[in-house]
Every structure is written in structure tokens, then in C-alpha cells.
């Protein structure tokens, strides 16, 4: 029995525009295994977010195939196989933090007691216990993103798809949330797909780093991390870390990332 959770084969996506076709993805082939933490890195326009959105059934490929848990992304979406975290927290300002986390559970028809238990559990996971009755505007940007992650975790999907969730945060907050995300991943054993522009973030978080290049979006390198699962922040100063970061940078250069 295979442990492959997400499988793309020769995946292509072309958008039709008034100025002609835009080839967002071309011939992308990749397997993601259960429990992997896979980062997608590349310049703007390389298709990394588009690829994530294909997994989530938010975009529809024009060529090739993609499966999630052995079924189509649409079937996976309907079976609630994944949670999705966007670049901005997207919390409703008129709902409390607990109310925002509760929203997908209400839509899915969970009972009140089940909702309460799940909200408390995910608040604990993202270290926001005690903030259930606060409103989003009463929380910092980093705390709002943690609430957004909690909302995506509330219905306990096995897959977590994250589209540059920490990109708008300052470096100190980002470092802290990177550490917290690794702890969360370790505790939950989710399979995570993570889009980022940051080489240190990609190397620090991932078991596998997918380097993408633009025009059209394709994979230029897949790097299996040799770092241990336990990763204090200062691992970023080690020769092993710097060597992986160098390979990512070389992969970006090889994909002509700096032609823009």
C-alpha cells in the first residue's frame, strides 16, 4: 500500500487571457508522501500558489493529472481531506476568535459539544488558549495567523495547505511561528504543503524543498532535506543548513529567477 498522499503527473495549467494564453504550470510531476513537510519556493509567477490551488480544487488543470488521497481534488475537497491557510488570516472582524474557528464546523454540521471540544483543542495546539472571546482586531498579526491555522485544523484534516502564511510578518514573529509550526507538525503528523519566498524558511521547515522556475511554471529541483527532525533556530548557522540553502539558491538561479 502506497503512502503517497498527493500525486501530480505532467500537470499543466494554461490561463486564457485577452493578451493570449498564460502558461502557469507545465509538465509538473511530483509525489508527496504522508507526513512530508514540502515547501514550494520560487519567484513570483512561477506557479507555486497555482500548484497549491490545484491540490485544493481552487484551480483546474488543463493537462496531466493530480490526485489527493488517491481521488480527484474535487472528491478530496468534498471529503474534507485538507485545511487551507491563506496569505492573510481572513478572519471575520465581527466574530470572536472562537467564532472564527467554529465557522467551518458550523457549516459542516458538527454538534455544539463537538464544536466546543475542537475549538479548545486547536486553540491549545496553536498556543492561543484564553483568547477565544477576543476579536481579531485585539490580536497581533502573528496571533491572527495562528488563529487562521487553528481554523484550518479544526475539522482535523490530514493535509494542511499553506500559501505563504507568514510572508507579511516581521522576521522575529516569523521565526517564532516557524518554530511553532514545526512543533505543531511534529505533534499532529499532518502532511503539509507550504508556499514561501524565503530560502531560510523553506530550508528550516521542510523535509522536501521544491524549487520552481517561471515562464512557464515548472520544477527545476527537488531537494530532500538531511536535517534532523528536531530543529532549534540556531540550526540555521550550521554547515549542513547552509549547504542546503546554497543548493536552493543555485536551483533558483538555474531556473533564471533573476531575469525579471
From TrEMBL:
<dbReference type="InterPro" id="IPR003593">
    <property type="entry name" value="AAA+_ATPase"/>
</dbReference>
<dbReference type="GO" id="GO:0016887">
    <property type="term" value="F:ATP hydrolysis activity"/>
</dbReference>
<keyword id="KW-0813">Transport</keyword>
<protein>
    <submittedName>
        <fullName>ATP-binding cassette domain-containing protein</fullName>
    </submittedName>
</protein>
<dbReference type="Pfam" id="PF00005">
    <property type="entry name" value="ABC_tran"/>
</dbReference>
<keyword id="KW-0547">Nucleotide-binding</keyword>
<dbReference type="GO" id="GO:0005524">
    <property type="term" value="F:ATP binding"/>
</dbReference>
<comment type="similarity">
    <text>Belongs to the ABC transporter superfamily.</text>
</comment>
<dbReference type="InterPro" id="IPR050166">
    <property type="entry name" value="ABC_transporter_ATP-bind"/>
</dbReference>
<dbReference type="InterPro" id="IPR027417">
    <property type="entry name" value="P-loop_NTPase"/>
</dbReference>
<dbReference type="InterPro" id="IPR017871">
    <property type="entry name" value="ABC_transporter-like_CS"/>
</dbReference>
<feature type="domain" description="ABC transporter">
    <location>
        <begin position="6"/>
        <end position="239"/>
    </location>
</feature>
<dbReference type="InterPro" id="IPR003439">
    <property type="entry name" value="ABC_transporter-like_ATP-bd"/>
</dbReference>
<keyword id="KW-0067">ATP-binding</keyword>
